[in-house]
Amino acid sequence: MTEYDDHLFCLLTMNHHPLHLDVNYAEETTQFGKNVVVGNYVYSILLGMSVADISGKAIANLEVESLRHVAPTFHGDTLYGETTVLDKWESTSKDDRGVVHVETIGYNQDGTIVCTFRRLVMVPKQSYLAARGGEQPGRPVPRPDRNWPGSAPR
Question: What are the DSSP E strand ranges found in the chain?
Answer without folding.
Answer: 60-69, 80-90, 97-107, 113-124
